[in-house]
Amino acid sequence: MTMIDPFTMSLLLIAALSICGLSIGIAMICGSTVYLALKGFDASIAAETLLQGLFNSYTLLAIPLFILAADIMNVGSLADRLLRFCEALVGRFRGGLGHVNVVSSVIFSGMSGSAVADAVGMGRIIINMMTKGGKYTASYAAAITAATATVGPIIPPSIPMVLYALVSDQSVGYLFAAGMAPGLLMAALMALTNVIVARRRNFQVDEKVPLAEIPRITGQAFPALMLPVILLGGIYSGVVTPTEAAAVAAFYALVISFLVYRSVSFRQFYTTLLNSSRSTASVGILIAGALTLNYVIARENVPNSLADFMAQFELSKWGFLIAMNLLILALGCILEGGAILLIVVPIFIPTAQALGVDLLHFGVVVVVNAMIGLVTPPYGLLLFIVANITGQPMARIVRDLVPFLVALFASLALITFFPNFVLFLPRLFGYQG
Questions:
Q1: 350 FRET partner, CA 20 to 30 A, in 155, 191, 361, 364?
Q2: CA dist., res. 176 & res. 129, Å (int)
Q3: In 376-387, which positions are buried (b, 16+ CB within 10 angstroms) versus exposed (e)?
Q4: Which residues are CB-neighbours of 277 under 8 A, at least 6 positions away?
């Protein structure tokens, strides 16, 4: 009887534990440890690899800080003031609250870096606004909220971009710059989709905010609106690193919520710290599992073997990017985006380099793919979140989501085949790729 080799055994164990409901991060640690034991290596290598990966990556500190900043903004009144500002700005058009949804996601994305934070925080509020008085169906409000939340991790700051920087050794600052134009493109196409759907379904025009009120509303939102300006201005002026900028964002959100808006109590802040700690621990376990599994993958020489295998097909770089799009979109239906970026993407980076694919462009393509996976059935984490908020059947939400998926796929195609569109901003800041 032929015994299964240790690498295959570890992969089967990871799959089995994940199917049984165990956290994929813990499953990867278990599978990697079993591999080391079967190969006769010291099991402490897993712990050593994990600790070295965590302690040697200063960039990873940005993740808990961005999570904390987003949670503080959600518990305070920053989200409410930003939504009121967006409503005054674009709420006067047909399907206006749909436009508010898009614009608020763009603005909030400059603060949180997380699609989930966007959907849970701003999403809950905007869904209530859209469904109040029967202006929009709950399923449509849920669909557009899930779709627009995908913009959050593309426009800087971005937690997925930080994860990609970890595995690709690329500059976080350049990755943030590379995500700006694609994120705005995605938002513009979704706004256009909302216009088309609003006209076809004859959504009513929302009550216009008097022009005389706009300066007052803008003034109330101004401290919150300054956060992305301070954040990105600090990074690209060279005053702070992206990690230090994350700390500035968390501190600024805290000061604004406590001293300016006075909307957060000490009890709420304590609860926010607990929630942020849980979210950070969840991400940390995923990163730890990926680091140990990546060590196993490196020991098995999987990236080079895969590069040699793909070389047989003589793919051009465009053929490779199309294949990667299809692969990650398929994986996005069943895997969480962070897992894809930490486990799957590193395997293909040597192949991308060999084919002359710019790794900054590649990073934006895979992050956009992973975010689209958040709204792709059957897994679609954002779909579960908005379904829980609205109580709508998943099938009804997916039906209303289809036009926005078309817009997202169109954005992905443009981002994939026009790399200069992605790279022109990083090049303005000195990127040589």
A1: 155
A2: 31
A3: beebbbbbebbb
A4: none
The average confidence (pLDDT) of the chain is 81
Omega before 153 within 30 of 0, i.e. cis: no
**Three-class SS string for the chain?**
CCCCCHHHHHHHHHHHHHHCCCCHHHHHHHHHHHHHHHCCCCCHHHHHHHHHHHHCCHHHHHHHHHHHHHHHHHHCCHHHHHHHHHHHHHCCCECHHHHHHHHHHHHHHHHHCCHHHHHHCHHHHHHHHHHHHHCCCHHHHHHHHHHHHCCCCCCCCCHHHHHHHHHHCCCHHHHHHHHHHHHHHHHHHHHHHHHHHHHHCCCCECCCCCHHHHHHHHHHHHHHHHHHHHHHHHHHCCCCCHHHHHHHHHHHHHHHHHHHCCCCCHHHHHHHHHHHHHHHHHHHHHHHHHHHHHHHHHHCCHHHHHHHHHHCCCCCHHHHHHHHHHHHHHHHCCCCHHHHHHHHHHHHHHHHHHCCCCHHHHHHHHHHHHHHHCCCCCCCHHHHHHHHHHCCCHHHHHHHHHHHHHHHHHHHHHHHHCHHHHHHHHHHCCCCC
> Which tokens belong to 281?
């621990």
Residue labelled with tokens 């813990």: 26
Task: In whole angstroms, give the CA distance from residue 124 to residue 212.
Answer: 28
pTM more than 0.90? no
pLDDT in tens, 278-317: 877 877 777 777 777 877 877 887 767 776 777 677 778 8
Pull the structure tokens for residue 322.
């199309």
